[in-house]
Amino acid sequence: MQMSAPTLRLDAMQFFGRLASDYHAMFGITLAALRGQRILDCPSGPCSFVAEAVAAGIDAVGVDPLYIHTHAELRERCESDIAGTIKAMSAHGDHYSALDLITYADSKRAALHGFLADYEIGRAANRYIAASLPLLPFADQSFDQTFSAHLLVTYSSPESGGILTNSPFTEQWHQAALTELLRVTKRVLHVYPTTTRTSPARRHPYLEHIVARLQVSDEWKCRYELSTYHRGDPAQNLLNASLVIERVSPDHATV
After folding, report:
1. What's the half-sphere exposure (Cβ side, CA atoms, 13 Å) at 246?
2. Cα separation, 44 vs 150, whole angstroms
3. Could you give the CA distance from residue 189 to residue 254 in angstroms, rounded to a whole number?
4. Using CA of residue 244, residue 245, residue 249, residue 252, what is the dihedral sign?
5. Is the Cβ–Cβ distance between 127 and 44 less than 8 Å?
6. Residue 181 · residue 133 · CB < 8 Å
C-alpha cells in the first residue's frame, strides 16, 4: 500500500511538551489512577507531566537526551521550536483545521513553564534523567507503567508515514526502542501516536509489524485504546488511538 504525502515535514526534531491533561487525552489515564505506582515518561521533553504527577504524590521519572542542558538553554530551545513548528503547521493549514494554533502554542508554553519550575529540583532528585532510546539506565521492570509519546512513528521518515526528513529512526530502531521500553516496564507500556502523519491516516506500518510479533508471544498482549487528542483535520484523526502493551504476567523479567 503506497503512503500518501505527510501533512507535515520537518528537518529536525522539535523540543516542546504537553500538559498532564494532554496525557489524559492521548492515553485515557488520570493522575489519580496512577497513585501508588512508579511511572516512566520517555521521552519526556519539556512536558509538565512529571512535575504534575509528582505534585499529585506519584513517583514519576522523565527521560530525555536534552536533560544534559541547563534551565536557560532548554527554555530557549523550546521557545524556538514552538515558534518553528507553528510556522510549519501554518504552512499546511488545510491539514490543521481542527486546531487553533494560537491555543496550541499557548498550551506548549504552559507545559514548558510547569516543567522548568520543577527541572532543577527534579534533576537533583534524579527524576529528570539524561538518556536516550534504545538504551535506558534502569533495571528490568523498574516502572509499573511507562508512557512514550511523540517520538516513535512521529519522527520516522516521511516515506514510512512520519515527518522527519533523513530520519535515523528506522523500523529496526523502533523494534529496539520498544524492546527496551518493555524491558524496564513491569505492567503496561503506552505508546502514542500509532498512525501515520498522512491524510487520511493509517496505522503506522512499523507498529503493525512489531505488534504482530508481540501477539504471537505468551508474554505480552496488545490493544489499541481510543484517543481524544486531536492531531489536525478529521482525516488525520482516523484510527486515533494509543497502543497499550500489557505484560501477561508481571513476574516475567525479560522481553
Report:
1. 8
2. 9
3. 14
4. negative
5. no
6. yes
- pTM (two decimals): 0.94
Query: Are 191 and 242 in contact, with CB atoms under 8 Å apart?
Result: yes
- Strand 128-129 relative to strand 241-247, pairing: unpaired
Looking at residue 7, the DSSP 8-state letter turns out to be S
What is the DSSP track for 167-200?
Answer: ----HHHHHHHHHHHHHTEEEEEEEE--B-SBSS
Residues composing the chain = 255
Q: What is the largest CA-CA distance in the chain?
A: 50
Query: 30-50 b/e with 16+ CB inside 10 Å = b?
Result: ebeebeebbbbbbbbbbbbbb
Task: Kindly state the DSSP code that residue 85 receives in the 8-state scheme.
Answer: H
pLDDT tens for the 255 residues of the chain, in order = 556 778 889 999 999 999 999 999 999 999 999 999 999 999 999 999 999 999 999 999 999 999 999 999 999 999 999 999 999 889 877 888 778 999 999 999 999 999 999 999 999 999 999 999 999 999 999 999 999 999 999 999 999 999 999 999 999 999 999 999 999 999 999 999 999 999 899 999 999 999 999 999 889 999 999 999 988 888 888 999 999 999 997 554 443
CA distance 227 to 224: 9
Residue with the three cell numbers 527554555: 75
The single-letter code of the amino acid at 183 is R
How far is residue 113's CA from residue 111's CA, in Å, rounded to a whole number? 5
> Where do the domains of the chain lie, and which CATH numbers do they carry?
20-247 (3.40.50.150)
The answer to whether residues 165 and 171 touch, using CB atoms and an 8 Å cutoff, is no
Give the three cell numbers for residue 150: 511523540
